[in-house]
Amino acid sequence: MANPTLRAAFDAKKFIVAPGVFDMISAKVADGMGFDCLYGTGFGTVASALGVADAGIATYTDMVARMGRVAQGCTTPLIADADTGYGGLLNVRETVRGYEAAGITGIQIEDQEVPKKCGHTPGRRAIPADEMVLKIRVAVEARRSRDFLIVARTDARTGLGLEEAIRRGRMFGEAGADVVFVESPESEAEMVEIGRSLGQYRLLANNVEGGRTPILSAARLAEIGYAIAIYPAVGFLAVAAALERVFGHLKAQGDSNGLPAAESYGFGRICELMGFPDVWEFEKKWAQPER
């Protein structure tokens, strides 16, 4: 079931900051930090699970399994990437039903042609706006609970211009999307214009370090009309950098001695994070006498 606390936070006009999670370690770490929402990044999930580009290679089955496990292993509401809905209108219906049944709280679908591409990379092409409107209407009708949120993304800005992206955002909001996501505006001025033009809807800002869009503070985003900011890449970029440092040390030194304490989460902490204390208590309770 969808977690009702996320819709309640939106209704209370609370600005949402959502870190990108891509596996169970990143999800468990973020889950214990008091965020109102987690964002299940498609790029990070595909990279960590399959080791390939976020270019429409992962399937519905791949994503619902991974994101469902995250949702079930965390108490924080999860919005998860679902690319284009994995096909036509029937696929969208089944994707919404599957994500909701898996315990995910929100689904992000976009208006790209298949195969889709990461929103901050070149070569994206958008389907006709009317086709996406139908997808949104199907998604809204397919959900069991209104606490399951529909995030509708347009990738029109890069290929078709800001005016068309705003037009689509308005259409998506009118079609019933709970959150409108205009992907990759290229300046703060463009973001201000999106907020001015679409301020009647909940707007999402996608903050990708090194991407097309400037990263503004939460206060500034709220001021210009946004309701939620996602940070899909910050986690896996940090993990890759940390691994490169410690693996480089291991290759150069031949052991892990001498690593700064800051480079290690700590074996005891990771055991606790993964639930070993519960395992030990269970084993103590049900211990069998030696024969």
TrEMBL record:
One Pfam family recorded for the sequence: PEP_mutase
GO MF entry, a single one: lyase activity
InterPro entries documented for this protein: ICL/PEPM (IPR039556), Pyrv/PenolPyrv_kinase-like_dom (IPR015813), Pyrv_kinase-like_dom_sf (IPR040442)
Residue ranges crossing the lipid bilayer per the database entry: 224-243
Keywords from the UniProt entry: Lyase, Membrane, Transmembrane, Transmembrane helix
PANTHER family xref list: PHOSPHOENOLPYRUVATE CARBOXYLASE (PTHR42905), PHOSPHOENOLPYRUVATE CARBOXYLASE FAMILY PROTEIN (PTHR42905:SF2)
Name of the protein this chain belongs to: Isocitrate lyase/PEP mutase family protein
Native organism: Plastoroseomonas arctica
